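Figure 6 in text form: structure in, sequence out.
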């Protein structure tokens, strides 16, 4: 649910605009507010789960997410919907690191591959299938009120997840409640840094002034202050994030790969949905169906990747990145030779190939990235990894959509050309991620010879 709600709302935006008379800035906040608060709480929520047990954090997070989903469905104004989305995002950020931390807690060594494979399949399906499910719900509920069911669908699932979570999840790894400080100054500095970095990215089309980019160095300064505080705080307590984790090569390069890959991966769905619905006049359901091949490929390969990652290691991630690049390049070629209205059919096979590659990237990368993280830091480490993914997604959407709309304006409605050029930017991010994966492989082999 929490990942589905990142993408499912994209196809509901036209219905929301018509029903609530929302302006462009309000619609942007419906989309970006969720991602902003999601990224804001990941690390402190992971740290809380490490210190006080993950069951309580998971159950409370799911309960708040479910209530916020119901509130979003009942929203009577753009402001009410934005407020519900902000709470939704924060609750999602509480839940997500508990899942990663639980896998670290309940499984050891090579046996983590299979549950991470299941999680990777979930990530791939939920991210890519969102537009399809959203389109189906809008089709069933009607153009005027169908958008509300995009949020209502979470309620029965959320209730079941709360009941099952409390029943099945163990309260603490060691059966004891641990009393630890949660480093409020560190939480504040990290949150400030993340917000300052994400705001100009998620608002880059609404805030036209270049002054917004001054928030980026301000965010970097806040994160530098966070790092200095964490080093000082570590001498007398447990910081919200242990910076020594960045000395672990697999964790650092894995986080870099995740940031760069999500910059390319998530931006594709945004521009593809806009291209199909606004450019080619496809319905929300039709746009969702066009993205389904990627979701199918990603789900299939993620389950396989989780099973074989311990045998092949980081080279498997590199292979996945190569396959993604090949699939996206084939998509660009197909759109060059095929008329625009046949785009969904022409891109089905290339997107399936890209999805297969994606399944070999996300699951194996998160397995390898967290493989050397000590259990007491599993939640905060997973939270930082996902924060990198959220920053990468915002960066990618900002860069790719800027190129997309610039070409669209320059060509006066050249939708296919704009989409192809946006895809080339996305491919660039994937290639840089591939370079990081190769660097990790080379460094690992050099370390093995010494």
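Output sequence:
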């Amino acid at each position: 649910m929490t990942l589905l709600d990142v993408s499912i709302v994209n196809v509901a935006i036209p219905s929301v605009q018509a029903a609530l008379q929302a302006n462009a800035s309000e619609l942007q906040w419906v989309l970006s507010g969720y991602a902003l608060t999601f990224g804001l709480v990941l690390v402190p929520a992971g740290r809380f789960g490490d210190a006080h047990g993950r069951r309580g954090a998971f159950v409370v997070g799911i309960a708040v997410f479910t209530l916020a989903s119901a509130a979003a469905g009942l929203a009577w104004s753009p402001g009410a919907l934005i407020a519900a989305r902000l709470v939704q995002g924060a609750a999602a950020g509480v839940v997500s690191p508990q899942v990663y931390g639980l896998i670290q807690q309940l499984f050891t060594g090579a046996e983590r591959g299979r549950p991470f494979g299941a999680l990777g399949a979930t990530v791939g399906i939920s991210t890519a299938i969102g537009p399809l499910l959203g389109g189906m719900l809008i089709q069933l509920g009607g153009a005027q009120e169908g958008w509300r069911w995009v949020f209502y669908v979470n309620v029965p699932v959320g209730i079941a997840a709360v009941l099952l979570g409390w029943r099945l999840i163990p309260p603490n790894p060691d059966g004891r409640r641990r009393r630890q400080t949660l480093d409020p100054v560190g939480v504040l500095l990290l949150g400030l840094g993340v917000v300052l970095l994400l705001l100009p990215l998620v608002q880059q089309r609404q805030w036209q002034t270049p002054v917004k980019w001054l928030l980026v160095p301000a965010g970097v300064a806040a994160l530098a202050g966070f790092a200095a505080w964490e080093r000082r705080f570590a001498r007398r307590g447990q910081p919200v994030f242990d910076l020594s984790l960045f000395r672990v090569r697999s964790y650092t390069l894995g986080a870099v790969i995740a940031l760069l890959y999500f910059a390319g991966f998530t931006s594709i769905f945004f521009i593809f949905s806009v291209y199909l619905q606004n450019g080619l006049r496809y319905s929300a359901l039709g746009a969702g169906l066009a993205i389904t091949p990627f979701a199918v490929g990603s789900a299939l390969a993620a389950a396989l990747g989780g099973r074989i990652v311990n045998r092949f290691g980081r080279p498997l991630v590199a292979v996945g990145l190569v396959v993604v690049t090949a699939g996206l390049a084939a998509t660009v070629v197909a759109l060059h030779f095929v008329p625009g209205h046949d785009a969904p059919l022409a891109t089905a096979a290339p997107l399936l190939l890209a999805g297969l590659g994606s399944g070999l990237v996300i699951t194996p990368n998160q397995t390898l990235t967290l493989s050397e993280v000590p259990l007491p830091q599993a939640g905060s480490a997973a939270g930082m990894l996902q924060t990198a993914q959220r920053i990468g997604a915002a960066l990618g959407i900002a860069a790719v959509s800027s190129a997309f709309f610039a070409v669209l304006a320059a060509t006066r409605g050249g939708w296919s050309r704009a989409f192809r050029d946006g895809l080339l930017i996305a491919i660039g991010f994937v290639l840089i991620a591939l370079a990081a994966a190769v660097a990790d492989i080379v460094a690992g082999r050099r370390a093995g010879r010494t």
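Caption detail: Residues 251 and 372 are 7 Å apart (CA to CA).
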